[in-house]
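Priority: medium. Attachment 1 of 2:
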């Protein structure tokens, strides 16, 4: 075969392979873009809201604990403000989580959270009512029994923590999968590019 024909054949084969690589690259880029969008627009914000929800609940529980233990009426009033603001912030976080969580396991965890929260809030409301009466009457809080409140607090906090850990685990899983997809695609495209070059050279000079 003449050199010109060899070069033309090698160029043609190389061009075909490069076109194949280009198509694979575009498909890979599209898939990676979808994965990154899912990661950035769904899993990451949801994980952040789960952490935020847990933090706000903990802050409100601490404020209630401080109000129960404090003998300073002014401090108790300040803690009431923290608790009231906490209600609003937690409700906003929970509403956001409810809108974002779409997996069956996530919905199941959210359902458990609602159950534990509602049971706890009934007792918490009774405790706050007693605190307010004590504050109004100038009575110390020694008449408040926190045993049941503390017992209901544990499953409430656990349900909150379970959602946070699940969302963080899902975020890490998707991030890892995206990284694997990227590395696999990059290796495949690079390998095909090298093969295309070597095959074109082989056809041009060794046939």
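Attachment 2 of 2:
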């Amino acid at each position: 075969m003449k050199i010109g024909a060899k070069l033309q054949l090698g160029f043609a084969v190389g061009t075909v392979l490069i076109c194949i690589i280009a198509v694979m690259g575009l498909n890979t880029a599209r898939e990676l873009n979808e994965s990154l969008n899912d990661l950035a627009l769904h899993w990451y914000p949801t994980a952040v809201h789960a952490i935020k929800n847990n933090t706000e609940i903990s802050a409100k529980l601490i404020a209630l604990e401080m109000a129960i233990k404090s003998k300073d009426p002014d401090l108790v009033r300040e803690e009431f403000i923290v608790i009231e603001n906490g209600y609003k912030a937690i409700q906003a976080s929970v509403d956001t989580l409810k809108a974002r969580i779409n997996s069956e396991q996530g919905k199941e965890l959210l359902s458990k959270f609602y159950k534990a929260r509602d049971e706890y809030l009934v007792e918490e409301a009774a405790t706050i009512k007693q605190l307010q009466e004590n504050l109004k009457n100038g009575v110390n809080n020694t008449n408040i029994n926190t045993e049941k409140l503390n017992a209901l607090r544990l499953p409430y906090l656990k349900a909150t923590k379970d959602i946070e850990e699940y969302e963080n685990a899902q975020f890490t899983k998707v991030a890892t999968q995206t990284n694997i997809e990227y590395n696999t695609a990059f290796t495949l495209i690079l390998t095909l590019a090298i093969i295309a070059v070597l095959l074109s050279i082989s056809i041009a000079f060794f046939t």
